[in-house]
Amino acid sequence: MIPLAVLLLGSLSLCAQDPFLSWLDRTAQGQLDQREKAVASIRTVAAADARKALVRKKLNELIGGLPSFLYSGPLNARVTGRLQRDSYTIEKVIFESLPLGSGVRYVIGGVLFGLGWALAGF
Question: pTM value?
Fold first, then answer.
């Protein structure tokens, strides 16, 4: 196992060598600083609610919005595996949260939500 300090030092030296990684690190740190200041300025429930609404709106924009209809059809859930333990069971469940659109021939997996890569950050 590699100690965390070695990993951190290694990643710092990579950033120093690679202009893109240096830019990416500066951008991420700037976004984290902006977020920290915004969160630190929250002093009231109303301010927290406003922040929550802002973050929700931004996340909704980043994922391309949510469907404009309320789907109430079957989920077609399937259990694909089970992990049995002494006092509990974990079931691996997949389901169709939304129906496939017409003309869809196959489904490709993908990352549904990747936080941290917006230029505006939050």
Answer: 0.47
First to last CA, the chain: 34
Q: Do the Cβ atoms of 82 and 93 come closer than 8 Å?
A: no
Contacts of 40 (CB under 8 A, 6+ apart): none
Conformation bin of residue 94: beta by default, left when phi > 0, alpha when psi is -120 to 50: beta
State how beta strands 78-84 and 89-94 pair: antiparallel
Q: What is the mean pLDDT of each run of 10 residues along the chain (122 residues)?
A: 50 70 91 94 96 93 76 84 91 79 60 54 51
Distance CA 12, CA 76 (A): 47
